[in-house]
Amino acid sequence: MLDQDATTPSSMSNASRRSFLSMAAVAGVASISPLRMLAQAAPADFRTTSRAAAAKTPIRVTQLAGNIHLLQGYGGNMAVQTGPDGKVLIDSSYMSAAPRILAALDAISKDPAATLINSHWHVDHVDGNQPMHEAGFRILAHSKTRERLMTPQSIALLHVSLPAYPAPAWPVTTFDQSLTLWRNGDQITLAHYAPAHTDTDIYIHFPHANVLHVADIWFNGVYPLIDESSGGNIDGMITASAHALTLADAQTKIIPGHGPLGTRAQLVEYHAMLSTVRDRVAALKKSGLTEAEVVARKPTASLDAKWGKGGMTPDVFTGIVYRTVRV
Fold first, then answer.
1. How many Cα atoms occupy the beta-carbon half-sphere of 50 within 13 Å?
2. Domains in the chain and their CATH numbers?
3. What is the pLDDT of residues 271-322, one digit of tens each?
């Protein structure tokens, strides 16, 4: 838990930072259980430590609908569509996980590699880009994802700095607003959210199969990470989750960026939680209270039993909402 005067990224205590680095929002396993390895990692060793853990983590495969499978390991949730037009893979986890991912893909089908879609720029979703490119995938993403992978980046909240990726990891096809692909008997719709988790977020929708990958605008079951350094903000998260709900029905299989496969009903609950926290914090901020004073008021207290079990502590989440909410 953060001290009352330690609610900004620059003033986060070392203990809080180590605890926060352990969050499954970063680790991305399906259970959302905190990974103790990251709790001991210095920020400078973040990617090295994560790669070491990813190399040891099995890939769990779940068939969602016909030719679409969910893949879950140490990074963000992945998905693959298979068929004669070639495999379409969503996200690449960490580069050290590539052998396991490629083996899992080969076990699903012998279709050739075709397209790798990056849902956003974060390391746990794109670090495997280069080995996937070398395996035959052409990388597709929002234009801002390419820009961020080409240049050094940081996540201030985690005190993490990351170097630019080499050219083989960069998307070779980009879009700004939306893009439609026709692959393997289904339409694949990609569209950009306004800044939410980051400024690079997209969703990937398979309407015929009724599968929707919403990526990191949804951390299923816990308070989410919102990356202020990349333009993320609470209002954008609420808008993005509301739009995702318009694409889903009761039968839609919704893939969150982190956590177990979800349903529309669960996403409704998550959206309501975000809206409730935003409204409570905005009211306190508008009344003139400082961030530390709002955190001390515990505006998430009635929600913490359900949503506060991940690595994102209620106090840290409240601070993010305070700093990014529009009043």
1. 32
2. 9-324 (3.60.15.10)
3. 999 999 999 999 999 999 999 999 999 999 999 999 999 889 999 999 999 9
